[in-house]
Amino acid sequence: MNPAVPPALDQVIHHPTRLTMMAFLAGCAEAEFAAVRDYCQVSDASVSRIATALEEAGYLKIRKGAVGRRPRTWLSVTPAGRTALKRHLAALQAIADAAQEAGAGAGAKAEASGRDG
């Protein structure tokens, strides 16, 4: 990887809470709003705001309904959202791999120059 051209991170899901939500939802067919809120450890307002942004990007589907007389909201990742998450995770892995490789190379150079001096 050329460090001057880093892999493209998806700015829609790059924020840690959005990434956590997407990863959680990618692991299931659908999750109730409260389960997502509890897993992400954020407020109802935060889940609502993030879910709306992800839905507008086409990454999430929001389904509203009721259980008995109580309103409920379910969230699920769309096929486009799954693809975006996979690409984002691959980009993060590429960055980590390149940094590790560069660090190993720099360490070897420093070690070699230390022996020469």
UniProtKB/TrEMBL annotation:
This is Winged helix DNA-binding domain-containing protein. The lineage of its organism: Bacteria, Bacillati, Actinomycetota, Actinomycetes, Kitasatosporales. It comes from Streptomyces lucensis JCM 4490. It holds the Pfam family HTH_34. It comes from the Bacteria. Residues 18-95 form the Winged helix DNA-binding domain. InterPro entries: WH-like_DNA-bd_sf, WH_DNA-bd_dom, WH_DNA-bd_sf. Gene3D superfamilies: Winged helix-like DNA-binding domain superfamily/Winged helix DNA-binding domain.
